[in-house]
Amino acid sequence: MTNTPGLARRLGTVDAVVIGLGSMIGAGVFAAFTPAAQTAGSGLLLGLAVAAFVAYCNATSSAQLAAAYPTSGGTYIYGREQLGPWPGFLAGWGFVVGKTASSAAMAMTFAAYAAPPGWERPVAIAAVVLLVAVNYRGVSRTAGLARIIVAAVLAALAIAVAAVWAGGGATLGNMPGGGLLAHGWYGILQSAGLLFFAFAGYARIATLGEEVRDPRRTIPRAILVALAIAAAVYAIVGITLLAALGPDGVASTAAPLADAVVAGGWGWAAPVVRVGAALASLGALLALVAGLGRTTLAMAREGDLPHWLAAIHPRFQVPHRAELVLGAVICVIIAFADLRGAIAFSSFGVLVYYLVANLAAFTQPAADRRYPKVLQVLGAAACVVLVATLPIEAVFVGLAVFAVGAAYRLARIRRRA
Length: 417
Hints:
Elements lengths: L12 H12 L3 H4 L1 H8 L3 H25 L6 H8 L2 H30 L5 H17 L2 H28 L17 H16 L3 H5 L7 H37 L4 H8 L6 H32 L18 H17 L2 H4 L1 H19 L10 H16 L3 H25 L1
């Protein structure tokens, strides 16, 4: 590690849990069930269970590693320390490139709900500028805004679920739709791959390890608490959607929760769902920007990205150059890119990131071990299986982006030599 200044430890357990929830209970809870139903029908509930179990395996690996390495960077640092510079770089590169594209997509998702027609891109750019400004002012401001957003999103979800059940629009007879296994195990695994990324936000807690008080206790606890709450929320929403619309109805709409609310007879609650979806996108974007800045900081400290990105603001104690550069890149992607192509790599990158985390945790000594090795084996195997279920185009895009990253690192190594 370099001797660059450290970040201030200002976050407690509740702050860390809220930032994790802001990442996991994002726009995915309003939209991820549609593609999952298309691939698995009512079997998406099994896919959700598989995704939650895989997330648990990966979360225990991240928690165990974060307790041993309470610094910024997450799996980038864990991979470097346990497996070597190249695995760490691949994890960090995949996270930074993939999540930068995801940030642009999340900003556009927010704008789709909040902007008038034709103004989506300017509103998305304005949202990025606003959240970068919040992050720039310090991690305490980030945590404070995350609390407000998460509370509002959970309230919107509670109103939506109540509207469906109390309004009489839900019946358990709608759920089977041919049976849980009607689409086969491949469809269930593909739905698990789609739903897994809704849980992946707990990694944001680990990337903030340098800013958490008592990190060896706080980070593992916050990761598992946030994951448990998110899994419960997704299960409740998934059951509600299937009971209201049936698997075919969920598969055929881009806004399943809003449609379920209307079917329940509480039409007045539909705007509440739209506001909740917009805020959820904003909350996920806020956490993404924070996590990206810290991972970029760690990579710059080690020389895998330009060292001037490792600067820390003397007053606000944030990696301000990294956050400003990333914010500018996200805005450029929003302004010019076809986001459907830009985010194709993200799913691939996230699974590689967690594959490295599981392998790194597997190699930890007994003194640092908190969970049995079988969880790391299952987590790593599941990452490989879920990659195999991704669309082939996403796999090719992912391999190409990793090849570019490897060439970039080789060029920096040769220049330093």
